[in-house]
Amino acid sequence: MDKEMVIKADKLTKRFGDFTAVDAVSFDVAKGEIFGFLGANGAGKTTAMRMLCGLSKPTSGEASVAGFDVFRYPEKIKKNIGYMSQKFSLYEDLTIKENIEFYGGIYGLTNKQIKDKGTELIDMLDLQAEANKLVRGLPLGWKQKLAFSVAIIHEPKIVFLDEPTGGVDPANRKQFWELIYETADKGITIFVTTHYLDEAEYCDRVSIMVDGKISALDTPSGLKKTYNAKDMNEVFFQLARNATRSGD
Amino acid sequence: MNPITLQNITKTYEKGKVLAVDDVSFSVNDSEMFGLIGPDGAGKTSIFRILTTLLLPDKGTASVCGKDVVKDYKAIRGMVGYMPGRFSLYQDLSVEENLNFFASLFNTSIKQNYELIKDIYVQLEPFKDRRAGKLSGGMKQKLALCCALIHKPSVLFLDEPTTGVDAVSRFEFWEMLKRLKKQGITILVSTAYMDEVEHCDRIALMQNGKILSMDTPDKIIKSYSEKLFELKGDNKHKLLKDTMTYSDAVGSYASGESIHVSFKKNGKSDADIINGLKGFLESKGYQHIEIVPTVPNIEDCFLSLTKTEIHG
């Protein structure tokens, strides 16, 4: 039986004037897969991700996310995905509980669901003592774990993580990845960008974008074999060094 | 004379409630590249702001180029270059206008110190009329470095210059720094990327305001106090989870393509440790297990040094 594909992109393209930010990229991502989305600054990652999240209309090509067409049902996509980035995650001047209630409400959970899910989440992260404290005072590592848990509170099919671990200490970075593994095991697809190339090794498959195109897509071990490299760092250097764009 | 010296520097915020820097002492040598390595909240930025005379320490003394950071703050400001973690040039001035502005603040001109910034500036020159706010991340970083260098400082402070920058651009940035170092500039630089320590002469690993360890990267690796093994096998997620329940190990975590498992040094031979772990995993049904002793990297060292705090 074929695996269920939760992201399908076929020649997906985005142009801004005469600049082609994303140039006919095609790939599929399976249910429960951890998919690493790498590329140099300016390669087109953010633009591609915005199209997949229903935030930006592609110029041409096709894509469906969580079973919905990106052209026709961007609002349905937004309801069926989670999103977390280092820059935008939680409201610092709300308490942990308030953040959970807020996001639960945004995602359309019932009051009962919010209550049950909230308790479950606080227990899982061992934050009982902090539940009524402002997020601002929480250590960064905890903030990120909480932001991730909140991003999947509505049990989306896919969660998009945009550089989720920047600035986090190694121990918390490892714990964050354990949380990602657990989530993937539950069948939620993880779509993640990172500048930490050792984290690329933790992904099931990795794509590397250069100048708007996907120039490599395989498992980490497959990529290392193809490029005769000892680690993902070498693979990335071989590909990204030839980039002609230097933008963002 | 050391260009940078800190003695028992302590800094707190919110009326003493938040301890940002906790009794930190170190010195940086002439023309040395010294790295402060640690996550957000380790205290790196507070140290930078104290040394660049923008923040007063609660306790302790510090000097830069032989001048006291409190008494001689004016003299220090003329001698150092500072690139803050957050982009802080004028977004609505062009590349050239920003440079000219910083040059005139220091009574100099782009021409006068062009040699120092030439390498970097040629990459910016095609965009010299573009507003700084419209530059890409990598270009902003280069412009900020140029502005910090324009008055030919003898000490350069760079607070997380490579955060959020892709691996190739990060590498190029470090190459630029090495060329500056060769010209005799002392550099204090911070980063949260553990793999960047190889570019530094000496590093201080920091967490929660304290220095955990300070030495050359090689020596820090040599002083790793545990025994480290690399584990490979099928079904990595589950393998990691099961390995974490092995009570003889003191740490197990994903590292690159394999799993790192660490043990206390207690006289057990490598072979005994390997057989023990292998037996444990085989009893859980794993078949193709590969375990070999391995050399730690800086991340392993950091994890080992912070272990007591992780599980606290």
Write up this protein.
- Chain A is of the alpha/beta class.
- In chain A, 35% of the residues lie in helices and 26% in strands.
- Chain A is built from 9 helices and 10 strands.
- A 6-stranded mixed sheet of chain A has the order 6-7-8-3-9-10. A 4-stranded antiparallel sheet of chain A has the order 2-1-4-5, covered by helices on one side.
- Chain B has 2 domains: 4-221, P-loop containing nucleotide triphosphate hydrolases (Rossmann fold, 3-Layer(aba) Sandwich); 225-295, VP9 protein domain (Alpha-Beta Plaits, 2-Layer Sandwich), CATH 3.30.70.2070.
- Chain B is built from 11 helices and 14 strands.
- Chain B has helices spanning 44-51, 73-79, 95-105, 114-124, 137-149, 167-182, 217-222, 236-243, 270-283, 298-305, 307-310, and strands spanning 4-13, 18-28, 33-37, 59-64, 67-68, 80-83, 155-158, 186-191, 202-207, 210-215, 226-232, 251-255, 258-264, 290-293.
- In chain B, the strands form 3 sheets. In chain B, strands 6-7-8-3-9-10 form a 6-stranded mixed sheet, sandwiched between helices. Chain B has a 4-stranded antiparallel sheet with strand order 2-1-4-5, with helices on one face.
- The mean pLDDT of chain B is 93.
- At the A-B interface, helix 6, helix 8 and helix 9 of A face helix 5, helix 6, helix 8, strand 12 and helix 10 of B.
Topology, pairings included?
The complex is a heterodimer of chains A (248) and B (312).
Chain A: E1 5-16, E2 19-30, E3 34-39, H1 45-52, E4 60-65, E5 68-69, H2 74-80, E6 81-85, H3 96-106, H4 111-124, H5 140-151, E7 158-162, H6 170-185, E8 189-193, H7 197-200, E9 205-210, E10 213-218, H8 220-226, H9 232-240
Parallel strand pairs in A: 3-8, 3-9, 6-7, 7-8
Antiparallel strand pairs in A: 1-2, 1-4, 4-5, 9-10
Helix pairs in contact in A: 3-4, 5-6
Chain B: E1 4-13, E2 18-28, E3 33-37, H1 44-51, E4 59-64, E5 67-68, H2 73-79, E6 80-83, H3 95-105, H4 114-124, H5 137-149, E7 155-158, H6 167-182, E8 186-191, E9 202-207, E10 210-215, H7 217-222, E11 226-232, H8 236-243, E12 251-255, E13 258-264, H9 270-283, E14 290-293, H10 298-305, H11 307-310
Parallel strand pairs in B: 3-8, 3-9, 6-7, 7-8
Antiparallel strand pairs in B: 1-2, 1-4, 4-5, 9-10, 11-13, 11-14, 12-13
Helix pairs in contact in B: 3-5, 4-5
